[in-house]
Amino acid sequence: MMQILTLLGALGMFLYGMNLMSSGLQKASGSRLRNLLTAMTSNPFKGVATGLGITTVIQSSSATTVMTVGFVNAGLLTLTQAIGVIMGANIGTTVTAWLVSLLGFKADISLLAVPLMAVGFILSLSKKDKRRHISELIIGFSLLFLGLSLMKESVPDLRETPEVLAFIQNWTSYGFGSVLIFMVFGTILTLILQSSSATMALTLIMVNMGWIPFEMGAAMVLGENIGTTITANIAAAVANANARRAALAHTIFNVVGVCWALAIFTPFVKFIGLIITWFGLPNPAEIAHDATLTMTEAESTATLYGISMLHTMFNLINTLLLVWFTKQIAAITTRLIKDKKGKENDDSVKLKYIDAGPLSTAELTMGAARNEVVHFAEISRNGLDYLRRIINTKNAKEFDEMQQKLVKYEEISDRIEYEIATFLNSIPEDSISDNTRTEAKRMYKIIGELESLGDSGEAISRILTRRNMRDKSFTEEQVSLLNKMLDKLTHAYDIMINNLSKNEPNPIGLRMATDCEIELNDLRNNIREAEMLKIEQNGSSYEASVYFLDTLSEIERMGDFVINVSQALEK
After folding, report:
1. What is the C-alpha to C-alpha distance for residues 236 and 436, in angstroms, rounded to an integer?
2. Which one, out of 142, 283, 389, 541, has a CA that is 20 to 30 A from the CA of 197?
3. How confident is the model over 307-328, as pLDDT tens digits?
4. Which of 512, 394, 396, 496 is nearest to 446 (CA)?
């Protein structure tokens, strides 16, 4: 029982170390990874290279795949681009198997793990953000190999207690049926652990300890490639159609690969064995399997390298075969996952980019949040059309319709602000860099200003409703002046959305926004002074003038909220 508990604890340490190492790397280079992912995907081959490179860096194909699904959901990647990145991620994840084989078994890196943790602790005390992130990377790396070392030490020794895993050895006597059994075993184990790297480490231990022969280890590797697709599918479950298609494409890619690998399983395993013999090592497929005997150093090395090589060659060959068919895979997933019929009307406006919210890669989700804020601004701008129509209309039915639209848009603004804020609140502060935390604070300020714009639109509808109830109306001149104010406000909106889209300090954009706000204020002041003069000259129009001036002030107030958004980007 203690051996089992120790094994589970060691497995937990391995997984925690991998997550910590991945998190540290993401925080140290999160913005660079985001930029790389969106810039290096112009064709499938660049996408493969990008996915390979990012997965090699962050040591997690699941993180890369979930991030890719999130980026498709955020509109940063097309479906075809995402498929290339996912293919590359599958190749990149094989680096972990090689690290474990080369360092975890052939060199006792756990001896360096504790001193490295001391180095990581010292770096964690630094005031510099980047050094603290590097400390996470070092401590995570150390915990990963400490966990691996403890796993090796805690597994039962079959020479002393062969009955412990006798049932697993019984699975090896069914010919090709055993291959299928161990493939399913690898799939289920990966589904449970949610990490193909952890399952790969356990597979390497099982083969190295003589629990299972090389062929069964190879079958487990195939199963792990199916099981690892579940993470992306979970992330995409609540996402938009394109994100679900990207996750499905990952499944199709790996399942197709496993199918051809099973069809030529014996020749494929022999091919891997031949590659290993080129390194001067024994053929792992020909090593006699006997759990009661100790492998020689050469046999142990050959077996470990054989599993890692099979993992690499499987994903490399599968990518080379299917990279030419990314468009066809995209077409299949599009046919299987249909878009919702009918376009959403204005009353069902909702979040567009952060439905999936892959918080396991929190540092890399800010691009989706940023796009959602821009989307919020565009929704807010659409409300200007209803504002203009309600000011200009003389038709009672159209007025009521526009009044209901503005009230609905105010409710939509409240809901979107709440949902974006909830998303930002769900990101653990200790999982993102200081720069990203600053960016999140800016977003809180911006969505608050955008929500206030919705309040102002609804406030104007109330002013005009009271005007109508008093049987008053605006003159043609007053309507024309309000339209001039709306023209200025529309221009201010355009500048604001352009600044938001760039999401970086933009002196030119801020100056344009400031100039537009000054023009709006000056126009408001001139109109108000002229209207006050008219009130003095013609007191009979006083009540209508009050409603006119209230509407004028509310439009100018909307200009204040708009300039506040651009100014928030500079802070």
Report:
1. 24
2. 283
3. 889 999 999 999 999 888 888 9
4. 496
138 & 87 share domain: yes
Residue ending a domain, among 336, 351, 373, is: 336
Residues 324 and 370 in one domain: no
For residue 249, give the nearest of 61, 67, 65, 95 by alpha carbon.
65
CATH number of the domain bearing residue 542: 1.20.58.220
pTM above 0.90, yes or no: no
DSSP 104: I
Taking CA 461 as the corner, what is the angle to CA 460 and CA 462, rounded to the nearest 5 degrees? Answer: 90
**Higher pLDDT residue, 355 or 126?**
126
Contact 96, 197 (CB under 8 A): yes
Q: Are residues 215 and 324 in the same domain?
A: yes
The upper half-sphere exposure of residue 353, i.e. CA atoms within 13 Å in the direction of its Cβ, equals 20
Beta-strand runs (E) in 246-403: none
Q: What does the H/E/C string look like for 243-262?
A: HHHHHHHHHHHHHHHHHHHH
From the number of C-beta atoms within 10 Å of its C-beta (0-12, 13-18, 19+), residue 266 rates as: exposed
CA distance 394 to 275: 83
355 occurs within a structural domain: no
Instruction: Measure the CA–CA gap between 88 and 43, rounded to whole angstroms.
Output: 12
Give the range of the structural domain holding residue 470, as residue numbers without chain letter.
365-568
Q: Domain check: are 26 and 103 in the same one? A: yes
Q: Residue type at 557?
A: R
Tokens found for residue 405: 């639209």
Residue whose C-alpha is closest to residue 266's, from 178, 377, 359:
178
State how far the Cα of 481 lies from the Cα of 552, in Å rounded to an integer.
9
Q: DSSP state, 165?
A: T
374: Cα separation from own chain's centroid: 17
Q: If DSSP codes are grouped into helix, strand and coil, which group holds residue 428?
A: coil
- Torsions phi, psi for 126 (to 5 deg): -65, 150
